[in-house]
Amino acid sequence: MFAAIRSELTKIVTLPGVWIFTGIILGLHVFVLAQPLDLSIEAIENMTPDGDVEVFIGLPQPAEEAVLGLLAGSSLQLSLLLPALAAVIAGQEFRSHQLASTLLATPRRGRLFAAKVLAATLCLLLVAVLIAGISTAFTYVVIRDWNPSLLISAEALLINGSFLAFAVLFALVGLAVTIAARSTLVGVVVTVALIALTMTQALTSIAPALDALTPLSAGRNLLLDPGINELTAGPMHGLIVLVCWAAAAIGVAGVAIARRDAR
User: Fold this and answer.
1) Predicted confidence (pLDDT) per residue in 32-60, tens digit
2) Phi and psi of 59, rounded to 5°?
3) pLDDT of residue 21
């Protein structure tokens, strides 16, 4: 099993598209966070005697609440590209029609599938950790003259841990859809459609409980503060929904790779 995982990891890290797309994600993350940096620093510098700040104009908040919300929101933005990265990882063998060759080395499809999922999970987790690390670094710059120890508080560690759970679980949905459909494009399109369901608030206007069952809304419910965000469920509900999406998608992909021809 370890040999199979190592083989899959080797495939992933030697694929130029993975490095390029990862670089794009991290570069965009730095660029996006750099834009409001001065405004965020100014908001902390202008903290009121009561400890309130206005990270968003016209919305005063307790400073700790605002900073923790900033940390969670910062990581959430670009993590939405991780399912597309997962689709690139999963689609490599289908684009080059190498699955049959892989099965010669690892003929047991169940073991092969498990190795693929575990190897991809490790890579996606690493990218998610880098995203969280960049968000933490920018947040440190914002609060370094005020209360940098906030970033190692239980609340901040919970936010980062919850983010990693969301990022990997949602990305695994993109991975599994790509494997089941044997198409990178399908994997990307499906995850974009799932994101659009939340971004357009199409389901929220009909039934908030239904919207809470989509993966991006589940991520928002898991990560964001209900005091300043309109959420559709609690964090535990969000985590359960994400686990169910990932488990169901991986289950379908496992059945698909076991029953279809090797091409």
Assistant:
1) 999 989 988 888 888 888 888 877 776 78
2) -130, 80
3) 93
What's the CA gap between 68 and 65, in Å, rounded? Answer: 5
Per residue in 75-84, pLDDT (tens digit) is: 998 889 999 9
Question: Residue 52's beta-bridge partner residues?
Answer: 62
Count of residues making up the chain: 263
Using one digit for the tens of pLDDT, what is the confidence trace for 200-246?
Answer: 877 766 777 888 899 999 999 999 877 677 788 889 999 999 999 99
Give me the phi and psi of 260, to 5 degrees please. -85, 165
Between the CA atoms of 52, 68, 235 and 130, what dihedral angle is there, to the nearest 10 degrees?
160
Residues 6+ apart with CB under 8 A from 213: 241
Give the integer Cα–Cα distance in Å for 184 and 55. 39
Q: Are the C-beta atoms of residues 166 and 222 closer than 8 Å to each other?
A: yes
| 3-state secondary structure string across the chain | CHHHHHHHHHHHHCCHHHHHHHHHHHHHHHHHHHCCHHHHHHHHHCCCCCCEEEEECCEEEEHHHHHHHHHHHHHHHHHCCHHHHHHHHHHHHHHHCCHHHHHHHCCCHHHHHHHHHHHHHHHHHHHHHHHHHHHHHHHHHHHCCCCHHHHHCHHHHHHHHHHHHHHHHHHHHHHHHHHHHCCHHHHHHHHHHHHHHHHCCCCCCCCHHHHCCCHHHHHHHHHCCCCCCCCCCCHHHHHHHHHHHHHHHHHHHHHHHHHCCCC
What is the C-alpha separation between 117 and 246, in angstroms, rounded?
11
Q: Which two tokens stand for residue 77?
A: 């933005």
